[in-house]
Each structure stands twice: as C-alpha cells, then as structure tokens.
Amino acid sequence: MDVHGDPMIPAVPSLQSRSEHTMRRPLLLAAAAALVATALTPVLGPVEPAQAAEPPKVLVWGGAYGFRHPSITTGETTMVQLAQDTGKFDVTVTENPADLSMATLRQYDVLMWVSTTGKAPMTQQQREDVVRWSSCGGGNLGIHAALDSEYGWAEHTKLFGAQFDSHPHGAGAPPARMFVEDRTDPIVAGWSHSDSFEMADEYYRWRSARGIPGISLPRNAPGTEVLLSLDETSVAAGIQEGAQPYEDDQPIAWKRSFGDGRVFYNNMGHNESTWAQPEYQLSLVRAIDWLSQVRPDQACLDAEAPLPAGPTPPAPDRKKIGKPCAVPAMRSTNEASDFRAVTTTDSQALGGGLPGNFAWGGQTWVVDLSPTRSVTADVTIDLAWALPTDDYDLSITTAWGFYGSDNGVGTPREQVVIEDVPHCAILQVAGDNMLAPSMSGTTATISVAPHLRR
User: Fold this and answer.
1) pTM over the 0.90 mark
2) For the domain 15-302, what is the CATH code?
C-alpha cells in the first residue's frame, strides 16, 4: 500500500468498455513486450522439449481499486514476455472483474494476482467461484499488494495466509537482506547460491506479525512452507526501534495448500526494477510450474459440495481456566487504544483512514472468561458507522485464522460471530476504509457470551 499515492479510487468504466479494453490489452502487451525483449534477461535458456501435458494457462489479474502500482503494467508485460521466451505457459491478461467467474476460471490453471489493491466489484457468486476453483485444484500466485486487498473477504485472506498491516521499509529504502530458508526448492533456485541475498523493494509487515504471543501467521498456518524471509536487522534505520517493527525472520515468500489447490505468494514486486531481475523472473516461471502440477478438476468445479470450512478455534488451555488473562502491554498499528481485556462487552471508536487504503483504525481485545470460569464463549463483533454512503469492512485476525465481513455500500454495519472462542484468546479487530469518502471513522463493539459450565 502506498499512502503517498492518490487515495481516491478512479471512476470504474462500464463492464462493456472494460471488456473491450481487456480484449485489446493482450495485443498491446505483446507489442510492448517485443520492444523490450532485448532488455528482459532469459531465465531458463533453451526451451525444453514439449512434455505430454499442455502448457498451463495463466490468467493474470491486474485490477486495482485502491492505489494502483505502476509495476502492475510492468508485471503484466513481463509475464507476456516470459511466456513467449520460455514456452513454459500461456498468458492472458485481464483487468475486467467479470473474468473472475467460473465460466472464465475453468479455462485456466493458474490465477495470478498482481498488486490487486482495494475491493474488486465482485458478486458473492464470483467469490464463491474463486474459492471453489481454488479448492478444486486451481493455482493462485500472489504478488506484493495482492495482500493489500479484499480485507473483509476472509476466504481471500485464508487462501494466501496473511494480510497487510504496514510497510515500514519503503520502496526507496536501501536494499534489505532476505534469508533463503529452503535452498533446495526450485522456486528460489535463482537465489540458492547463498543462504541470503539483498533486494531493494517495499516490504510489508503482516497484521499477524506484531509480536503478539501465539500469533505468527503465515509461518504457523497449516500447510505453509516459507521460502524467503526478511532479516529484520537489515531494514532501514529506526524501524525496529519504532512503533512498527518487523517480526523476527518475517516471511516474504511462501507456498501453501488450499483444499486440492496450491498457492504461492511473493511480497516482492512493488518496484518496477524487481521485475527485470533474472532471479525474480525465474521464481515466477518455477512457481507456475509448481502450481500447475495440480490442475483444476472439472468435475469438482461442477459439484455442489460445500466450500472449504472457516477457521476452527483451538482447544482451550484448561490450566488457565478461572485465572485472569495476561494482557500484552502494547498497541498495534493504527490502534486507538492499548490492548485490553473484555469479559462481557466493550466498544472503541476507530479512525477513518483514507478511502481505498488499509485499516487506520483497530483494536485488540483479550477474551477473559475468568469471572464465569468458562472454557469457551461465542463472541460477536460489530462495526458501525453513520453514513450509508461510506463503505468500511471488518477484518479479524486470530492465532488460528481470519474472519471478515464486507457488505456493500448502503449497509452501514458489519458483523462477525465467532463460536467457541477459548479463554484468553486474542482478537485483532480492524475497520478498513474501502470507500468511505467522509473518513468519519467507525465504532467497533465486542460482546462475549460465555458457555456456562454445568
């Protein structure tokens, strides 16, 4: 996210005009790629003989509804050129949100999200289509601001395993050091000559990487393998001593599973220069190869089986039952108040932020059930604001996963109910300004209904 960019979301063309634009775009990109072909370093050498399986088809999605990174266009052009140079995959580029539907997705093996900030105008059916396609074997490749988007869409966050908090080490900062955590993985082969390397780019800090006990996502998320991590001692001066320090060895690139599908994410890609790096290009080609080793199951796409279930709270620590919870003495990014315990109900006014940007208002609560000696509780979190013309989304980060709610404009309220929350659970609550021009802010309210012991 770049708060120095124009925060206002530009007018969105009609679907018809956007469709026409999308149809022309592959030709324009191909022409642009031809002009820069000599500048793009080949990463794989001669193309290997064709294999039995058809080259995977990649849909590059570059729609941005918050800040639009200039590197989106660079990324789109680079992917077209890599497809031509290597013959390893076929590419279609689109910025038309109508293409995020089962009718289109079923024709592709990989969906690439290139810094897709903000909240795309998708229907609930489209979102279910993306989730079903992904869980039925579709591969997702996320780049940079793909995780600075869709805050109230919890399944999107679950898919990738993390959500943007801030970017203390900005795009213009000196290069930071990356640790190569698995030098044997083909995706990071370009960097495998050493256990670390330096790269100049903008590096995100994750909402779940705030030094809170028990919360370290995506590293601790099931089915996740971290490939690259940030050496926090190498970031710009003053960051680690300030209000937004990075977690030790914070994940930068990782791969994971989602149902029968595969996911790869790399936080690099803000800087246009990153896309020209041979090692980075190689990682993209190898990531597509890994993702497409599983292809979407067409029968599964047509099935009416339930979508993947949401997160499941862990079993409570019975040694803590009846004892007051420890409350970390800290305040997270953009929060209005320090962490505090809640036993029944509590409210907090949250800042309004900038339209289309990340949460400028949040509050962290510790669910303390010691007064009733309860083991678990049902917790309801409401987010409300005054103007129905504003659009805020509600997102909640826990040690075991993500929750969210994102009604459209006209409904000035979001609500999430989490069942079976264990004693002393930590809930990070954020109100994200997706399109609230008034910037008047919201009020978050938490209500705890303990399960009384018999």
Assistant:
1) no
2) 3.40.50.880
